[in-house]
Design a protein that fits this description.
alpha+beta; 68 residues; 32% helix; 4 strands; Alpha-Beta Plaits; 4-stranded antiparallel sheet
């Protein structure tokens, strides 16, 4: 079942950072779509049977950012 969450992230300086984080998240198994704005809001649609919210947060950190 698809779920959507919004995470506030920190550490972004520009649109390229937002694009990089969105691409990183979309590579995670179970992520259907990730849209990140340069202000730090990440809207992620994902299959909760495949990936957990904790794994999404770990993905944000692995990409070099943090979850506020």
């Amino acid at each position: 079942m698809a779920t959507q969450t919004t995470m506030n992230t920190t550490g972004m300086d520009c649109g390229h950072c937002a694009q990089r984080l969105g691409q990183y998240l979309e590579r995670l198994d179970g992520v259907i779509r990730a849209k990140v704005d340069p202000g730090g809001t990440a809207a992620v649609r994902y299959d909760e049977a495949t990936v957990s919210l904790q794994e999404l947060e770990e993905g944000v950190r692995a990409a070099g950012f943090d979850v506020a």
